[in-house]
Structures
1.
Amino acid sequence: MNKTAGPVTRGTLMGAVEHALRAPSVHNTQPWRWRLDGGTVELHADRTRHLIGTDPDQRDLVLSCGAALHHLRAALAGVGVATIVERRPDPESSDLLAVVRPAAGPPDEREAALASAIAARRTDRRALAHPPESAEMRRLAEYATRHGAALYPVTGSVNRARLTAVLGEAATRQRFAEGYPAELAIWTRRYAGARDGIPADLRTHAAAAHGLRAFPPGRLPAPPPPRSPEERDALVILTTPADDTENQLRAGEATSAVLLAATNLGLSSTPLSQAVEIERTRQQLAHALPGLRGCPQLVIRLGHPAAGAAALPATPRRPLSWVLLPPRERAR
Ligand SMILES: Cc1cc2nc3c(=O)[nH]c(=O)nc-3n(C[C@H](O)[C@H](O)[C@H](O)COP(=O)(O)O)c2cc1C
């Protein structure tokens, strides 16, 4: 039901952009800028926040923006506003990634249902208790498909071991990649009061295990895993049919939809991007697993949280006023 009588106000659009700021982003860099212009919302890439050593292809940057684009549309759907989106509308501006416009009619109910998960979703790097049920996995796969991507669940210990080996190789290569260790340090040791980066409260105090990115130790407990990894969580690979910027943007939208739907199902999730950041391991991902079709864009870890696991605090975000571009000047 369209709950907004008449035209969608600037306040409604602003409120939705505020929600979009909660989107996940690589190292919590928040590489986006927004412009509200004539009843539309523009999403721009902020390439000053590009992690040159970690993300040489800018895949993570575009995926992060795609996640914010989906958060925006889900937030608008949540207040009864349907939207249409034009991706990469201006061939002259590679930074303008999308323009979103309110559309007539009611929004999609399945998208509206995701709005309430925006505030609750967290990246959880702790040990998990058990993987999603197959019905839950099907629901998540549906959300990926609706956004032009596919979810490939990595099943069986042989495939899991293959994927873990690829993740391990990516981690080893990055340890020696120019700029990677410096970027890891910069985005985990922010200045006091910073509104970006990954605080110690969200990093485990043991070194990363089982293919998770090795951040500098933080304050989260990481109990020793009692059982084999695949009994505790599931790893899925999100793929797209092609690997151009538009597909990477859609991969980010699909990632957002999957993570929000997972949150609604009570699942914890961790995006894992190391294996796609390096050309060689991305190729290995594409070929190491039987039946995987398309271009790998992201690995996602999913599972039910351990019994009694404490709620995680929210990571900080830069306020809207820091990321809002001025309206365009028009000829009188
Ligand atoms: C494209 C992308 C790549 C990411 N890669 C990783 C990763 O490799 N390891 C990890 O622990 N978190 C990863 N994250 C999660 C971010 O660190 C997280 O979204 C950010 O710190 C904000 O925290 P939040 O998700 O709890 O809001 C990634 C997120 C995105 C969107």
2.
Amino acid sequence: MSERNNEVLLNVEHLKMYFPITKGLVIQRTVGYVKAVDDISLFIRKGETLGLVGESGCGKSTTGRAILQLYKPTAGHVYFREDGKMVDLTTLKRRELQPMRRRMQIIFQDPYASLNPRMTVGGIVGEPLEVHHIASGKEKLERVKELLDLVGLNPYFINRYPHEFSGGQRQRIGVARALAINPEFIVCDEPISALDVSIQAQIINLLEGLQERLGLTYLFIAHDLAVVRHISDRVAVMYLGKLVETADRDELYEHPLHPYTQALLSAAPIPDPVIEEKRQRIILEGDVPTPINPPKGCNFSTRCPRVMDVCREVEPEMKEVAPGHWVACHLFD
Ligand SMILES: Nc1ncnc2c1ncn2[C@@H]1O[C@H](COP(=O)(O)OP(=O)(O)OP(=O)(O)O)[C@@H](O)[C@H]1O
Ligand SMILES: [Mg+2]
């Protein structure tokens, strides 16, 4: 976990990622956009974990990918600290971006789909070392063995294939691959959602241990609120392409302010049976609107139990209502 006063490593300003919707087989026309990420601002301090939560399809993965420049953002800026300066990744040319790419990595949700089945573990983990011209030959082999050891896999397995491993072990391979080039920042995109509950904790412990040992900074994407509470220093809540609330972990879980955050938390079971019995569920009406045609005003206005007239007209801005606690809701105007 992080120290409170650490410097900011990553600063995202007004990030937008719109995917065009095209029509026509021969001449393609753009007939609209999927507004997957629609004006998001956030920062992450060095060594901390920012949890990003929200329902399926709200734009969490797209946010992670746009930050890493795996997509070219439609608008906005992504600043990454480099020698004491904040460098805007969105303005870098391909060649300038390359050295920055070495400093950030992603761990995917599905360790079955994300590992090449025809490559050995040694090949998979060592590939980034070749791509970034860091090591080859015997040196690469040594580094791969070191990495396998680091993530709790027997280096003896270096010549085996992904299918010979369990889900948890495969995710360890994914982690070793992400760590190969010594990144500072890792987007963990639901890294345990596809795993058995019994092994989820092992991977969480591994990620936490690595963070402490290597001083890593995480953007941790998940829809499981209990996991996010466990691993995050701060939490950002996302709904339909926008952030609705950001706060320190305990503040967010103990004093959720946005009606969406409150509904999300009310839906999560509490492991204490006494508290669980008293838990009041807030049931949201209706479905999440489509990001192709989001509502006017506040995106949550169509489902909000506390909606007011202004919510259907004016989009709420993020406001700091307590130190470090930001919320975008007209109830706090
Ligand atoms: N490459 C793409 N082209 C077009 N639309 C996309 C693309 N990637 C994502 N989308 C759309 O953008 C929206 C956000 O998707 P995204 O995968 O970021 O959500 P998510 O929060 O990660 O969801 P989940 O929890 O299911 O992983 C969805 O409506 C999705 O269909
Ligand atoms: Mg996703």
